[in-house]
Amino acid sequence: MSPGRTGGPGTAAETGAVDAPSWPVVLRTELTRLRRGFPLWYSVLLPAFLILPLGLITAFSPEAQAGRAWDTWIQVVLMFWGVLLPMSAALYAGVAERQDDDARRLLYTYAFPRSRLLIGKFLALAVLSLVSAFLLIAFFLLLGAGLGQTGGLGKIAVGTLVPWAAFLGALALCLVITNAWGFTATMCTGVAGMMFGALLADKVVWWVIPLAWPMRMVVPIAGIEASGVPLPDHHPLNDLTVLPVGVGMSLALAAVLLAVGARYVNRKEL
């Protein structure tokens, strides 16, 4: 430990020094704690759950009988990916905070800003969810190679990663909610997010509902409505200019909410 850094609250009080763990240390610590338990398993199992059962369902669809099984499979998986991302945000934030409650109470007693833990948690959950996105892409690539399908691979990558970027605002929202109002409120937010994504992502009001942003990104990429109905070629919802708008709003919202959440946890009573 370097001079001027402390090892605990007692030492800090005696010397006037302040604990200052670096951001890499905070991120590594949060990732280490997330290695065990639900968040890691969810990140690994969600892509497999989306790929395999939906593939079996798609194989017996009318579209598959018409020779469009691969394209339809991609569309259906991306649709459910977009719909489930708000619920994923709630599960990541709610479960991670609940399983880490005792350790967080201890860390809050150390002499460094609690906001480091909040932002570190956000970054760790963002990394974990990004791993899940890359697993989804990898599974599709492997299946495509095995089935001799090479079409739509760019759509798969963009349709997975752009909604993930649009999900970061929802993740920050759920993390602030779970710190302020607890697990139940966070789960209710996730359920509402799935409903908003399925019902309102392709409506003109989508931009005022952050929980609908991931699915709104899927709509023009996959070429489907939020209900799963394929879009005609020249439909207005096929406009890809919405993608940078949605991602930009998500990143801006995440920054604002993390600033608000940082102020809240720094002032929160133990």
Could you characterize what this model shows?
By secondary structure, this protein is mostly helical. 73% of the residues lie in helices and 0% in strands. It contains 11 helices and no strands. It has helices spanning 9-15, 23-34, 38-59, 62-65, 69-99, 101-107, 115-147, 153-180, 183-200, 213-222, 242-267. The relative contact order is 0.14.
Tally of helical segments? 11
Largest sheet: none
Specify the overall morphology: globular
Measure the end-to-end span: 27 Å
* N-to-C SSE string, H for helix and E for strand: HHHHHHHHHHH
Report the oligomer. single chain
What is the rounded Rg? 21 Å
Uncertain runs are 1-17
Number of strands: 0
In percent, how much strand structure appears in the residues?
Answer: under 5%
SS class = mainly alpha
What is the share of helical residues? over 70%
| Rounded mean pLDDT score | 86
List keywords for this structure.
single chain
Please outline what is shown here:
By secondary structure, the protein is mainly α. It is 73% helix and 0% strand.
Secondary structure elements and pairings:
Blueprint: H1 9-15, H2 23-34, H3 38-59, H4 62-65, H5 69-99, H6 101-107, H7 115-147, H8 153-180, H9 183-200, H10 213-222, H11 242-267
